[in-house]
Design goal:
This protein has about 170 residues and is of the alpha+beta class. It is built from three helices and six strands, in the order βββαββαβα. The longest helix has 19 residues.
Length: about 170
């Protein structure tokens, strides 16, 4: 917070101007794979509510689902990934990460501040995902299955065709 003093007839007026700048962040956390779907939704709701209670605004959420981990974390080889994109004050990030650290359901997390290019890329990615989800699925025509040939026992032995065995010899 910055304090500015302005001259006035006979004295000074001190104005406090808030220099808090809201930034856009992206956080991804990995929850333990032993959670049920309702427990996972409760964990997500807890963090979305935490962001809202501290003056933040959730821009986008995406459930990435259960994925294999590159290496074991706390003796677990998979985890539920979840992405939350939000706007908040920079001071809030320490609070959010403290809550992640205290929650035994969360095995890993990362929060990054997005610059203007990353914000534009995230917006573009969201638009592509919604366009793919909204587009009607077009079923590809099934290839015709070849007709079954009669069984070898039923077919009469055929003589090889003389036209197919034509050989040209030049001297």
């Amino acid at each position: 917070m910055a304090i500015f003093a302005a001259p006035l007839t006979g004295g000074f007026i001190i104005n406090k101007i808030s220099t808090e700048m809201i930034k856009q962040y992206e956080t991804v956390f990995i929850a333990t794979p032993v959670l049920s779907e309702t427990q996972m939704k409760e964990a997500v709701a807890k963090y979305v509510q935490l962001i809202a209670d501290n003056g933040g605004e959730v821009v986008y959420q995406e459930d990435w689902g259960l994925k294999q981990l590159a290496y074991p974390i706390q003796h677990k080889t998979s985890g539920f990934y979840y992405l939350i994109e939000f706007k908040a004050n920079p001071e809030f990030i320490a609070t959010l990460e403290t809550q992640y650290h205290r929650d035994e359901r969360i095995i890993r997390y990362i929060t990054v501040a997005l610059d203007k290019d990353a914000v534009a890329y995230a917006e573009h990615r969201r638009q592509n995902r919604t366009a793919k989800a909204a587009a009607p699925k077009v079923e590809e025509p099934k290839a015709e299955e070849p007709k079954a040939e009669p069984a070898a026992a039923d077919a009469a032995p055929e003589a090889p065709a003389a036209d197919n065995a034509e050989v040209t010899v030049e001297a």
